[in-house]
What does this fold into?
Amino acid sequence: MAGPACTRGGGCDNIKTQRIPRLSGIRWRVAVVDEELGIVWIRLDFGPGSLFGENASKSLIVWEAFKVYGSQIHAVEAFMKVGPQNAPSGWDAN
It folds into this structure.
């Protein structure tokens, strides 16, 4: 997303200056909330337009875990994978 290997074009030197894509097909689901530990786990499917090049017909699928305390997010871990568009989350309604 930024730095020497960045291929996004425009803003690679400073991630804060990158254009944020407008994606209309983002689907998300809160998978887990542990209020005692302050952990939230979310699944996101960024949908059409989230990938470029040979993966343009696929979707960026992301799992993110947040550490929350004092009403603020203090840490984030993310796992990303290229997958088929509209892949089920496993918690989707039948």
Q: What stands out?
A: DSSP finds no helices and four strands in the chain. The mean pLDDT is 84.
